[in-house]
Amino acid sequence: MKLSNFAFFPPLDEVKKDFINRIQRDYPGIKIFAFKNESEVLSKIHLVQAGYGWVSPDALKHANNLKWLANPDTGSFVNESGRDGWFYKELVEHPVVVTNPRGIYSDHIGNHIMTYLLALSKRFPDFFEAQRRKEWNQNANRHEVIHLNQATVMIVGAGGIGQEVGRLCKAFNMEVIGVDPKFDRLENFDEVIKPEQLYDFLGNIDVLVSTVMHTPETQNLFNLKLFKKMKPTSIFINIGRGKTTSLDDLVNALENNIISGAGLDVFEEEPLPKNHKLWNLPGVIITPHVALLDADGIINNRRYEIIQKNIILFNEGKELHNIVDKEKWY
User: Is 60 exceeded by the pLDDT of residue 257?
Assistant: First the structure.
C-alpha cells in the first residue's frame, strides 16, 4: 500500500509548517492535510492514512483509514487539551501503528547529564554559594567529593540516552549499572538489571541518573522510600520526565541529608513554582527543561529524517522504524 496522504494535527506550530513544506517538496505525490483546528480534523479524519501529532478520542472514532501516527515526542505527555494523555485507552486499542523519534536526543541530553554529574560530584553548587558571598573558602563543600574513577553510576532507562550516558561515564572509568526491562547486557555497562532489582543495588551507587519516560509504572518511581536506600553522599539526576519523581520526597531527602545533591531539568509541575523549596536548597542544580538548548534545528532535522525513513518503509510494506508499544507508552 502506497502512502496517499499525510495529516498534520493541530496546533500547527512552526515546526509542523516546516515539515509540511518539506514533504510537499520531497513527496509531491502525497496529499497533505494541514488541520488548523479540531473541527477540520473531525470533517476529514476518515480520509487520513497517516499523520503527525495528537488525535483526540472523538476524532479517533472516525479514523477508519488511519494506519500510522507519528508522535512528535519520545514518550507520553498531557496533550494540548490538558485532559487526555497521549496514549489514552481508545488509542491503545485502535489498530493504528504509533511511532516516535526515539534516538534523536541522545548526544545533546547525554552532555547535559554529564554537566550535572561533573559539577555535583565536585560539589560546585557549594562553591558557587561561597562565590556569591565573595568568600574564599576552600572547605565550602558540605560533602566529600565523589571521585568518578572510584564511583558507581546507576542509569535507570538504558535506551538511547542511557547508553550514551553509559559511554560517557565509562570514559571517566566509572562502574556503570543499567536498569531496563528490555536488555540483559549492553556495551559500556558493567551490569544491566531489571526494574524489579532496582532496590537491591541502590545502597552501592554514588550517582543515580533517570532517563525514563513517564508511564503508569514510573509515576513517582523516585520517592522517599527509594532515596532512603541510597548513600547520604549520593546524588540524583533527572532528565527523563518530571512525573517520575516526587518533588516533596526529594526535598525531604535533601533537607535531611538522606542524599547530598540533585541535578534536575524536568519537574512534576512546570514551570517550577517560585515559592518551591527546591530553588533555595543547597547542593541542587536546576535548569528549566533546556537539555536541548540551542539544538532545535539539529533535532528538527533528525525528526524529519525519521518521517522520511518511515514514508519509505510504509511504501515498501515494511515494518516502520521506532514503533511504540502503546500499552507501555514507549
Answer: yes
